[in-house]
């Protein structure tokens, strides 16, 4: 007999919570089925309010605390929160270099260490002279020692170029203590 998750065809819910006409999600695996539940009104029992928009969720997959029907999420964009839910529901991690830093911050804020670690690795792989000072500050703020060490090594090896970037100039203005710590290395 075919597993139930291969037989289910759930309607996908649009960003506004409406079900688009003739929209069906066909699933071929357990993770595909779970992924189809992200922001899906069907069987949802919790709503996350992100940037004023409702995102539908399932308490048994998302959270330990099961009493609230609505959870407000501040400081995380809607797109990033949907990526968090995709990871929680399906273990799927497929993000651009640009999205990885924002997802890293969200994972730290929400407390998903495995996602934070994946993002940290992705951000490490995409460091450039232009981004390294900003990411160094980010790694310090979110206690990411591996990322901070990688940034420090790149900054030290390329100090002349990095010191001319907007990110480094901003670091000097906003967190002189951290910039001093960096220059001592």
Automatic annotation (TrEMBL):
Location(s) in or outside the cell: Nucleus
SMART domains membership: BTB
Pfam families, sorted: BACK_BPM_SPOP, BTB
Keywords (A to Z) from UniProt: Nucleus, Ubl conjugation pathway
Record GO cellular component, one term: nucleus
Location (main, coarse): nucleus
Domain BTB intervals: 44-127
InterPro entries, per the entry: BACK_BPM_SPOP (IPR056423), BTB/POZ_dom (IPR000210), SKP1/BTB/POZ_sf (IPR011333)
Superkingdom of this protein's organism: Eukaryota
Entry coiled-coil feature ranges: none
PANTHER family assigned to the protein according to its UniProt record, in alphabetical order: SPECKLE-TYPE POZ PROTEIN
Family per record: Belongs to the Tdpoz family.
Protein's name in the database: BTB domain-containing protein
Source species of the chain: Phytophthora cactorum
């Amino acid at each position: 007999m075919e597993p139930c998750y291969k037989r289910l065809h759930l309607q996908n819910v649009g960003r506004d919570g409406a079900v688009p006409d003739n929209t069906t999600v066909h699933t071929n695996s357990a993770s595909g089925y779970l992924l189809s539940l992200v922001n899906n009104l069907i069987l949802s029992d919790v709503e996350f309010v992100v940037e004023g928009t409702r995102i539908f969720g399932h308490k048994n997959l998302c959270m330990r605390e099961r009493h609230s029907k609505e959870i407000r999420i501040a400081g995380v964009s809607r797109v990033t929160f949907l990526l968090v839910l995709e990871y929680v529901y399906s273990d799927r991690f497929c993000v651009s270099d640009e999205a990885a830093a924002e997802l890293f911050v969200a994972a730290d804020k929400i407390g998903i260490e495995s996602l934070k670690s994946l993002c940290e690795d992705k951000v490490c792989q995409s460091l450039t002279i232009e981004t390294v000072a900003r990411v160094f500050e980010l790694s310090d703020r979110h206690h990411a020692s591996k990322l901070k060490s990688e940034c420090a090594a790149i900054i030290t090896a390329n100090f002349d170029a990095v010191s001319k970037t907007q990110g480094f100039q901003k670091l000097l203005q906003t967190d002189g203590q951290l910039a001093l710590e960096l220059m001592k290395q």
